[in-house]
């Protein structure tokens, strides 16, 4: 019998923005593994599954438990919100999977917050952009700082994941200060909280204003480039089409 | 009656990797507008729709025709492959939509090639990354060059869209040369052609080797950073978890 772990991005949260492929694997699998918050988003749709649920910072344990159950013959779906390949579990499962050579790993992509959040704000990501996580739990702050500086210097649109938490209350402010070395304070910025979930909330402002806004780990931040403009209240980065 | 244009990302191409929301709007709408190649991907599933089909470089005409039909009272779905908000039609429709104030615009995100291609290769996008289009049709080459240089200097993983065409046969080679100023030729790179469509094809190599590989506009390219490694033939950028 083939032993499988499917690493699934469920998208922002509602079933509507999940792909058919993700839903199909969730329906067919024996075991669903994930972080409590993400399991809560889907559990009602799949009441009869075996669940492996672990807390935050228990990612390694969770992945290893998923691989163990697959090794024992179960078909296992390991879920992340958004896309499992973007700050999700796909990388870790490949790293740990090397010790389970007869378990096949398949990544099933989902809508990452850059895309779902951008759609709520308008069309900020129409041209070259960067994704940067402000979490320094696993990336040194100096590296993050360098990436923010280079991204703004090259006039990328910038999307920030994990912009803040209780412990990192001033990180967005620090990031904005770096970006403001290269970008004008008047460039449009936006943020979306709880994308596609209960309490979804979006706001558009300037980069200058963004500095002073409180954010949490459920917020995704968008900072425009020199081309980004506001059109009827939407944040849009034109791509350069001639509008004859 | 409400007048609507839905700008829809249909994902890589197969219905499986479309979201439920995208499929639902396609089913309910009156008119589907798009570039011929993308219409061909979905037409069999929706035989009874009115279609607006235009060729490449006719993006402005296509968007305006979609807005006109909505203005007349039709519910119109304008499709892009991947995500409509990433090098797609979402920005242009907002720009042109300003002239049609009673038409509502809604963007429905889809799986962009960065995510669908990454899933085929392994997990290259687990840490901060950039998307850069090598098409200089609407962005000056100097800007693209600067972005490539900054992205590599900051050790971003880089995903390249539109890496080549008949007219731009050597652009990937030029891009690799810029990245090689900062990255070692041995960093893993990968490419995926026709993601999720007939003839899908993926390959993993080094950045040094990538320079000499022919690519076309249906290819998406992934260039690792200093952390990216090969694990059992997959391209993986570890995020820094402790594997105790």
TrEMBL record, chains A, B:
One GO process term, biological-process aspect: cobalamin biosynthetic process
Pathway field: Cofactor biosynthesis; adenosylcobalamin biosynthesis
A Pfam cross-reference name: TP_methylase
Gene Ontology molecular function terms on file: precorrin-3B C17-methyltransferase activity
EC number from the UniProt entry: 2.1.1.131
InterPro entries: 4pyrrol_Mease, 4pyrrol_Methylase_sf, 4pyrrole_Mease_sub1, 4pyrrole_Mease_sub2, Cbl_synth_CobJ/CibH_dom, Precorrin_MeTrfase
CDD domains: Precorrin_3B_C17_MT (cd11646)
Keyword terms, alphabetized: Cobalamin biosynthesis, Methyltransferase, S-adenosyl-L-methionine, Transferase
Domain (Tetrapyrrole methylase): residue spans on this chain: 5-210
Claim: Methyltransferase is one of the keywords in the record: yes
Source taxon at top rank: Bacteria
Cited PANTHER family: COBALT-FACTOR III C(17)-METHYLTRANSFERASE-RELATED (PTHR47036)
Name of the featured protein: Precorrin-3B C(17)-methyltransferase
